[in-house]
Amino acid sequence: MLSINKNKWSWLFLTSLKGISQVILIENAFSGFIILIAITIASYSLGVITLLSSLIGTLIGKLGGAEGEKINQGLFGYNSVLTGMALFLFLQGGDRWFIALAGSAIVALLTAAMVHFFRQTGLPMLTFPFIVLTWLLLLTTYRLVAFKISPDLTPQSLSSWTLNIKGETDWLEGAVNGIGQIFFLDHTLSGILLFIAVFWAGWRLGVYAIIGNIAALLTSYSLGGEHSLIFMGLYGYNAILTILAVSIVFKGESRHVGITGIIAACLTVPITASIVTLLLPYGLPALTMPFVLCTWIFLGARKVLPNI
C-alpha cells in the first residue's frame, strides 16, 4: 500500500511538472523542473503558486475522469499555471493567494469545456482558457470589492495616449527577457534557465525559440516600437510561443515550416500592438492572446493551403 501511495505522489508531481513545461508547448518533466526553479529564483511566492496551480489542474483532470493521455501529458496543468500566476501578480490584497488558486481550479473546468468545443474545429485550444478567465476575473475588480486590481493595471484614455519610442537599447537584455515574459518574469538568470529548459527538451525547440525572439526584437525595433517594451521582452514572448507552435509542435506536413514560423513570429508584433491598444481603456494585459490569434491564423490557413 505504501509503494502504491508513493507511486501516486510521484505520478502527480511529475505530471504537474509536465503541466508547467506545457506552457511553452513542451512535454518534459525535467524541463518543467528547471522552469519551476527559474520562477522560484525570481520570486519564491510565485514559484509556490506555480507548482500548486499545476497540481490543482492535474488533480481536477484526474478526479474528473479526463482522458488519461491528456492528463499524463500535462495538458490540464498549463492553463492553471498561467491563470494562478497572473491572478497572483495582477491582484492585490491578502486574499489573492486564495483567488489565484481558485482561479487555477476554475480554469481547469473551462479547459475541459473548451477541449470539447475545439475538437470540432481541428485547432488547438492553446492558452485561450487562461486568457478568457483572467480577463474576466480582472474586470470584476471594477464591480466587486472582494477583487482588488494591481495599481500597475490602470485604464488609460486613447485620446491622451502618447507613444514614447525613446529609451535605452539593451539587445542582450531583450534577448533574455523575451522568454522570461512567458512566465511574467523580468529576471536575467531566470531567462537563461528558461532557455536551458527549452534546449533540454530538444535543440530544435531551443534554436527556434531564439530565432522567434530575434525576429520579434528586430521587427518591433524596425517598426518603431517603444524601447522600454521591446527590451523588457513584451514583444518577444508571444513570438517565441508562436514560432514553436507553427514550426515544430503543429507543423503538419509542410516543408516550409521554418519560413512560415518566422513570418508568424514577426506578425505577432503588430498583433500585440493592436491588442495592447484595444485593451488600454480597460487596463488589461494582452497576455498570450497575440500568440493564440497568430497561431490560429496559420494553422487554420494550412487546412486550405497545406504547403505553408
Short structural description:
It contains 14 helices and no strands. With 308 residues, the chain is an all-alpha fold.
Describe the 3D structure.
By secondary structure, the chain is mostly helical. It has two domains: about 140 residues, Orthogonal Bundle (Ammonium transporter fold), CATH 1.10.3430.10; about 150 residues, Ammonium transporter fold (Orthogonal Bundle). It is built from 14 helices and no strands. Helix 8 crosses helix 9.
Features:
0% strand, 308 residues, 67% helix, mainly alpha, Ammonium transporter fold
Total individual domains:
2
CA radius of gyration? 19 Å
What's the tally of helices?
A: 14
| CATH homologous superfamily heading of the largest domain | Ammonium transporter AmtB like domains
CATH architectural label of the largest domain = Orthogonal Bundle
Order of helices and strands: HHHHHHHHHHHHHH
Structural class: mainly alpha
- How can the largest sheet be summarized? none
Number of strand segments: 0
CATH top-level class of the largest domain: Mainly Alpha
Poorly predicted runs = none
Proportion of residues in β-strands: under 5%
Helix content: 55-70%
CATH topological fold name of the largest domain:
Ammonium transporter fold
Shape summary: globular
Please state the average pLDDT score: 93
Please identify the oligomeric state: single chain
Span from first to last CA?
Answer: 53 Å
